[in-house]
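REQUEST FORM: STRUCTURE PREDICTION
Request ID: SP-0412
Submitted by: Lab K.M.
Chain count: 1
Length (residues): 313
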Amino acid sequence: MEVMPSSNVGAISSPARIELEEMIGLKRAGESFDLTTIRARAISSGGHLSPFKGRGVEFDEARPYESGDDLRTIDWRVTARTGKPYTKVFREERDRPVIVWADMREPMLFATQGVYKAVQAARTAALIAWSTVAHSDRFGGLIFSETEHVELRPRLGRKAALHLLKVLSQEKIWSRGQSQDAKLQHAEHALARLMRVVRPGSLIFLLSDFRDLSLKFETQLRQLARHCDLFLVHFFDPVEKDLPPPGRYRVKLGTRTMAIDTDSPLIRQGYRKQFEQRQKKLRDIARSVGIHFLECSTTDDPRELLAGWFENR
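STATUS: Completed
RESULT:
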């Protein structure tokens, strides 16, 4: 028996990949919820109350130093050039950068029910993109696989959303698993790239099955969470949580095929325990540093998941 995904997934035309038209079709669903519904205790000078940890700041101009100015803001270059003390003036960003970090590696190309984990991640990214655009925040992303790494800086407007969705719909994102030479890129490498370009105050959604958690990855999450607000969205297939009924199965994962025997009660119990331990580790990391944690099965509706979470806030 070969375990393959079901095609009964509503608007998705294929359980194994997603097309640009399908992600554009999620526009209305994405606009129906607001990523900024969590508010801070203080009012910002930006377009709406500062959510989460607040927005970043950008350099505006240099002006002559005045008594009472913070010495840490002195512009030493201008001061040296003019011979007179100048201070930097910053303005708060009026829009909040929202960034999607999307894992499209081979383990995400898997499902026994519903759609591939990668399809769920792409649908989630599309919903976040359209919600961000509808509420006038900047949207960007980082998409990575074994062979691809695409960084899109946060931009305002519909084009920013469409740019990322076009990348997610490209053939090479879904077919590159055919290469036997492709090696699994550790998530920590992609997260390190994100840390170098993200600005403080950003809202970041990490979309992955988080199969390769490491101590370095945990450290990176903690560092990122100090200045940004993070959502870990954990994607999994039901068979990763519990083995199918006792029997012998043939499972296809990307380009690999393997046989599994689910008769042994001890194997079934150990398998379930392994998943629960990994899930608990994710929850514990999120709880310890104030990261928001969501779980999405291959049979779930990402729109209901996101809307339910934000609307309840």
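NOTES: The chain is about 35% helix and 20% strand.
Reviewed by: T.R.
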